[in-house]
Write a structure and sequence with these properties.
The structure is a single chain. By secondary structure, the protein is mostly helical. 52% of the residues lie in helices and 0% in strands. The chain has four helices and no strands. Helix 1 (9-21) crosses helix 2. The N and C termini lie far apart (70 Å).
Length: 81
Amino acid sequence: MRILTDIPDDDLRKLDALASESKKSRAAAIREAVKLYLVQNDRGNDWIERWAGLWKDRDDIPDGVEYQRAMREDRRPYEDI
């Protein structure tokens, strides 16, 4: 669907510059901006659901459970206390 909207000239210049840098058309940049706006303002979408697993593919972040176990290796077991 097509829409007609007024956008200030200064904003269009900035938009065109950003679109050009990323090798996108003005229309593609506007569609991306609208999509981002809708995602950020989706009141029914819980932030945990949106961001869960965000860093799952990162290799530079160690596993949290392994880190905890390594930190606790030097502690005495509770049975010995």
